[in-house]
Design goal:
The structure is a single chain. This protein is an alpha/beta fold and 161 residues long. The protein folds into 2 domains: 126 residues, 3-Layer(aba) Sandwich (Rossmann fold), CATH 3.40.50; 32 residues. Helix content is 58%, strand content 16%. Strands 2-1-3-4-5 form a 5-stranded parallel beta sheet, sandwiched between helices. It is globular, with a radius of gyration of 22 Å. The relative contact order is 0.12.
């Protein structure tokens, strides 16, 4: 899995880089952004599975960036990691369909738990999409079988396959 780190403070980005390097989570940091505009651009080019997003940043804040990103890529999961615990922020973040909302300074265990939950969620969603594709394929095969049972031209066409 791939993660994009978005925070205007370099030290915070470095700390998260270190977190992912020292914890064997099977997650690769594919990029870092220091504002919401960069996050939107990097989301489009890097296609991360997870974005860890700060709220208060220059140029474009994390909440507006989250809304834009979720519109263009609803499958990406976003974890807000911010020092701002105001109810309005968390409410807006939840309306934007973020996966989790964590407050800085975050305990390593809390961050690990959140990452594990989002990772499991992504894997389940992928499996569901695969099952939907298989189900659709099976239904299409059933339609072909119905054509065979009708006799005539369809019978000959399918038997040649």
């Amino acid at each position: 899995m791939k993660v994009l780190i978005v925070d205007d403070e370099r030290i915070e980005r470095e700390a998260l880089q270190h977190f992912f390097k020292t914890n064997d989570l099977g997650i690769e940091v594919v990029g870092e952004a220091s504002n919401g505009v960069q996050a939107i651009e990097m989301n489009q080019t890097l296609h991360p599975d997870i974005i860890i997003m700060d709220i208060r940043m220059g140029i474009l804040d994390g909440l507006k960036a989250t809304e834009c990103i979720k519109r263009s890529n609803p499958q990406v999961e976003i974890i807000i990691l911010t020092a701002f615990g105001l109810f309005e922020y968390s409410q807006q973040a939840l309306k934007s369909r973020v996966f989790d909302y964590l407050l800085k300074p975050v305990e390593e265990k809390e961050l690990l738990d959140s990452i594990q939950r989002v990772k499991n969620h992504i894997l389940i969603q992928r499996d569901k999409r695969k099952l939907d594709l298989i189900r659709h394929w099976v239904e299409e095969q059933g339609d072909e079988e119905k054509k065979v049972n009708c006799g005539g031209f369809e019978d000959q066409r399918v038997s040649r396959l």
